[in-house]
């Protein structure tokens, strides 16, 4: 704690010194010193904290790809983020922007406007599972046993709502847009997923599309193919929201895409 | 300061309580309470700080688009971020990933492999200008007078290097990839930009492409058209790095794209 406070103070002092200098800064081309990353071993305890902030930013901005686990040194950082207020504020901030966008649209009355929602950590929150000590917010690898237990968790149909996304759902329905839920979850969980979605407040939808076990492509390719089919059928994808970049890149991504935060896992599978 | 510390402590306690509970969390489906965003007026002084974190994340993830200024309430937050260590760590983290990617490539010896670098706040850092009190890290609108002064700043050819990007430049050159600098800066600044790039260590390049004053498209469209021309000429765009989403979306974006942080302005112009 003392180290973190010292780092805080240091940053504040740095910021204050520079921003209150009062000179036109272009007279000081050397004002901004490049501070180079130091090897962790030599740089004291505060650096891993910064590295975890940087790590999360590289993940959320799609700079870091195909990663398999949260680095062990960032476990408590991610735990604090996901269980604290900031994750919720970050979700609400994305949804605020999405709702403002929805309200700016003129939706035709032909019933062909849709909004695509991912399910896991978008419509519903898997935090009860990922906060298990043996999963530890993505630090631990999901081996076959944990994968099976995650599937059981899905089948309970008691996965809690991600509150911000429900707020967006209500806004799109009110605007005359229909919801399409599109998930990489197995088709075998269709009944549980439908029951779960209804139980938390997603009352109705145009389609609930799960991944057939026969499909061997990545989720990204699967979702692109489904969206292509929807467009061919005459639907207009007004928006598309997911917690994974795989949800919102590829073909026919939609008129506007929204990325919810998720520093716990990477959805390339 | 006291408020910020109290907020820190609060988050730590929240995090510790939840993550150390020791129960398999799926036995507590109500464990994770949705915390809703409160109106600022009723929520105490710590909330604007969280909102600025959320605001920055929505900007960096391309959720927030077409914004014109840093919100006034986030001015000191952005000032602290940009002048402190975190911005530098965040840049270095992106470049670490990019260099790892470069080292994974097998580059043919035909000299057709290129890497596209944006200039402003990518190859060079405009912080000396944006830290001016009358610009205040993007809080103030760049009116015609300030735009003119920014242009003078560019013409000094003394814009400092963004150290992380120079490190990436050295890695791509070493790997046999040629640099192409592609900027929305006016062609009239070509001499100053070239002199500036060389002065800080970008010794050589395949092309330095500036926007002709006759081009009336957005930077995003201009850069896409240039990349299309490069691909038609037989170049392979192995990578592409910029601080703006407009640098790395569109057509022929490159085999892999990298987004440096920049919470000071939005490059849609």
Please explain how this structure is put together:
2 copies of one chain form a homodimer. Chain A has 269 residues and is an alpha/beta fold. Chain A has a domain at 72-259: Rossmann fold, CATH 3.40.50.1000. Helices cover 44% and strands 11% of the residues of chain A. The first copy, chain A, has 10 helices and 5 strands. The first copy, chain A, has helices at 2-19, 46-60, 75-83, 85-104, 127-130, 144-155, 163-174, 190-200, 219-232, 245-248; strands at 113-117, 178-186, 207-211, 236-242, 257-259. The longest helix of chain A has 20 residues, at 85-104. The first copy, chain A, is globular and about 50 Å long. At the A-B interface, helix 1, helix 2, helix 3, helix 4 and helix 5 of A face helix 1, helix 2, helix 3, helix 4 and helix 5 of B. Chains A, B: This is Acid phosphatase 1-like isoform X1. Chains A, B: Residues 1-21 form the signal peptide. Chains A, B: May function as somatic storage protein during early seedling development.
């Amino acid at each position: 704690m003392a180290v973190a406070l010292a780092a805080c103070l240091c940053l504040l002092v740095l910021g204050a010194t520079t921003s209150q200098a009062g000179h036109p800064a272009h007279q000081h081309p050397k004002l901004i010193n490049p501070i180079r990353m130091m090897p962790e071993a030599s740089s004291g305890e505060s650096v891993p904290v910064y590295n975890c902030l940087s790590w999360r930013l590289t993940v959320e901005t799609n700079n870091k790809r195909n990663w398999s686990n949260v680095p062990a040194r960032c476990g408590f950082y991610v735990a604090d983020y996901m269980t604290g207020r900031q994750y919720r504020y970050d979700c609400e901030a994305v949804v605020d922007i999405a709702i403002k966008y929805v309200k700016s649209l003129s939706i035709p009355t032909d019933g062909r406007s849709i909004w695509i929602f991912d399910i896991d950590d978008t419509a519903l929150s898997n935090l009860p599972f990922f906060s298990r000590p043996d999963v530890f917010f993505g630090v631990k690898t999901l081996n076959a046993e944990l994968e099976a237990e995650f599937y059981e968790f899905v089948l309970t149909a008691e996965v809690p709502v991600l509150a911000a996304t429900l707020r967006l759902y209500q806004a799109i329905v009110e605007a005359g847009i229909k919801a399409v839920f599109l998930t990489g979850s197995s088709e075998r969980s269709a009944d549980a997923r439908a029951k779960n979605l209804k139980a938390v407040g997603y009352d109705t939808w145009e389609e609930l599309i799960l991944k057939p076990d026969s499909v061997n492509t990545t989720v990204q390719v699967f979702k692109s193919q489904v969206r292509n089919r929807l467009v061919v059928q005459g639907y207009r994808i007004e928006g598309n929201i997911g917690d994974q970049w795989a949800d919102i890149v590829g073909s026919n991504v939609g008129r506007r895409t929204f990325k919810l935060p998720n520093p716990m896992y990477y959805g390339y599978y």
